[in-house]
Amino acid sequence: MHDLLADFRRSFRQLWRSPGFTLPAMLCLALGIGANTAVFSFADALLARLTAVAESERLVRAFVDWSNGLELGAFSYPDYAVLSLVALGSCVLLIAVLVLFSRR
Questions:
Q1: Would you tell me the crossing angle of helices 19-43 and 2-17 to the nearest 10 degrees?
Q2: Of the candidates 60, 54, 101, the residue with the CA atom closest to the CA atom of residue 77
Q3: 12-59 pLDDT tens trace
Q4: 64 within 8 A of 83, measured Cβ to Cβ
């Protein structure tokens, strides 16, 4: 923790000594963060908030294309339950493999 504070102090001193670099760098960061926030706020307001449905956060759109005769868009709750268990099992298996191989 002491090293981290010493690094911050040294960085602050270096930035204070070279205002010709510090001011443009801070301006670029501020403009970039501001532009990013503005774009994503606009996209959120336009795409996510303009639904005229009560409890719109609960809306889900899911499709499945199985070769056993189900049509695209025919998606029942039992299909969802099976697919969610398969996805969960795949994630658990992937994590187990990553943990086992990372110990070598």
A1: 110
A2: 60
A3: 898 889 888 889 999 999 999 999 999 988 887 777 666 666 766 666
A4: yes
